[in-house]
Design brief:
Elements: H1 2-17, E1 23-28, H2 33-42, E2 53-56, H3 67-87, H4 106-118, E3 126-130, H5 138-150, E4 157-164, H6 170-176, E5 181-185, H7 190-201, H8 243-248, H9 253-275, H10 279-295, H11 299-315, H12 319-335, H13 339-355, H14 360-374, H15 378-394, H16 398-413, H17 417-421, H18 425-438, H19 442-457
Parallel strand pairs: 1-4, 1-5, 2-3, 3-4
């Protein structure tokens, strides 16, 4: 991870200095995307940067490519940025969000144009970060970015585009040339990941190997990456706590007496072995990790370890073993009142039954939804109710499907708009709309379609057009 981050730091610093560069294109994956987002936002504080940075991470999806949602989010973020700058004594002119007009890009283009006009020295220009987690139509996405770069009214705006698991802008970056566009590849290769994981894990302990206590007390007890040599004892070092004191604080003495180190070796070693398709070794190491969590009375971690063991057993084509692991996780979580982990184990059992076309799958999905609500894991609960509704619908249990879909949709409506956008709530609303249409309930179907748009984009629906070239007329 350090090498890709250094590449981004170097190119990001040059982007902050070289004002003629209009586009910084970052290729990321699931591992590096969050790191890239965090770093790019901090470019605002680079010594050579004089432009506010606005991050827009709505998906490029739907009839308008997420344009209205992106514009609404821009208005919200720039208004907050203006207030923060004013509190710091930096003047920014008036900025008022307008009602979104029709069109795919005009709304965002006009909002950015108004924001740029409100800036006063020492601020100049804007840096807009486009980081869609999902791109549905690659050609439209590239055309939209091209239109934003070419718009006469937005020539003072510079762009950072972070693509996750795609390379749609490669041709555009080549077309712009090195003088106008920079590219950073932050993807981490599987070989590099395996090498780093092996270095972290070290050799796995032999079965039955005793725990090896680290330095008696202090940071060497944490199980992190520490020097092998212990420092000399300080005269003012406090005494190490007794086992009774640790247990009273809810911490197993075994954890500080080598348990943390062995857990790290077992879990990372299992992951490495599975990646190399050494299934027997990986399953044995993961099972030992789950057992050690149990010895240390770390029940929530033990449930998670059992769920992971089940997934490894599925990868090794041992579904019955996976079922036993998931069932053990459910029983353990229920015994210790852990609804969140229990929901994950129930969902895993449901997916296993669904593959086998066992009707019991529906009950597991519904149990996962209820348990997730108890655990206050609302986005996860929404996904469970969607899956339960879809399975009920596929098996002809239409009333039960509507009940499950409705429960998931009600949870989504109680979420903040941005949180609801990253769930499948919009899909649930569309599924309910289709069911209403089949029953001849046209008004209800229309209401649900509008609800789906609002959940997906964060704004009320309106007439949409999809011509990227129309933005050029705003200049």
């Amino acid at each position: 991870m350090s090498k890709p981050l250094r590449r981004l730091q170097e190119e990001g610093a040059w982007f902050a200095r070289a004002k003629d560069v209009r586009l910084l294109w970052v290729q990321a994956d699931g591992v590096s995307r969050r790191v890239a987002l965090s770093y790019v936002e901090k470019l605002e504080y680079h010594a050579d940067n004089t432009s506010p940075v606005i991050l827009l991470d709505a998906p490029w999806a739907g009839a308008d490519g997420g344009g209205l949602a992106r514009a609404a989010r821009f208005n919200q973020l720039f208004a907050a940025k203006r207030d923060a700058l004013a509190q710091a004594g930096i003047e920014v002119g008036a900025f008022a969000a307008e009602d979104p007009p029709d069109g795919r890009l005009e709304t965002l283009g006009k909002a950015i144009e108004r924001a740029g006009a409100a800036l006063r020295p020492p601020l100049a220009g804007l840096v807009v970060v486009l980081a869609p987690p999902r791109v549905e139509a690659a050609e439209a996405f590239v055309a939209d970015v091209q239109a934003l770069l070419d718009a006469p009214s937005l020539q003072a705006v510079r762009w950072v585009v972070i693509e996750a698991d795609s390379q749609h802008l490669g041709g555009l970056v080549i077309q712009l040339g090195a003088a106008r566009a920079l590219a950073v590849d932050m993807r981490v290769s599987e070989a590099d990941q395996r090498r780093d994981l092996a270095a972290l894990a070290g050799p796995p302990p032999a079965p039955g190997a005793p725990l090896v206590p680290p330095h008696p007390w202090g940071p060497w007890s944490s199980g992190g990456a520490m020097p092998a040599a212990a420092p000399p004892r300080r005269v003012d070092d406090p005494p190490a706590p007794t086992d009774a004191q640790l247990e009273k604080a809810g911490l197993s003495p075994l954890y500080l007496k080598g348990g943390a180190q062995q857990i790290k070796q077992l879990v990372l070693g299992a992951n490495l072995a599975l990646g190399e398709q050494r299934f027997d070794a990986g399953l044995e190491l993961q099972a030992r990790a789950a057992a050690l969590f149990g010895q240390m009375q770390m029940h929530e971690d033990q449930v998670t370890a059992l769920i992971i063991l089940g997934s490894y057993e599925l990868a090794a084509s041992r579904p019955e073993n996976a079922r036993q692991s998931y069932q053990g996780a459910v029983a353990l979580a229920a015994r210790h009142a852990l609804p969140g982990p229990q929901a994950q184990a129930e969902l895993a059992l449901g997916m296993l039954d669904a593959i086998a076309q066992d009707p019991a799958a529906l009950g597991h999905y519904e149990a996962a939804g209820s348990l997730s609500e108890q655990a206050k894991a609302i986005p996860f609960a929404i996904e469970c109710w969607r899956m339960a509704g879809q399975l009920a619908s596929d098996t002809g249990l239409l009333e039960r499907a509507d009940e499950n879909f409705t429960r998931g949709l009600a949870l989504a409506e109680a979420l903040p708009p941005q949180a609801a956008q990253v769930t499948s709530a919009a899909e649930i609303a569309r599924l309910l709309a289709s069911a209403a249409e089949r029953r001849g309930e046209a008004a209800r179907a229309d209401e649900l379609q509008r609800q789906a748009f609002r959940l997906e984009h964060g704004v009320e629906p309106g007439p949409l057009r999809a011509e990227p070239a129309a933005l050029e007329a705003t200049g």
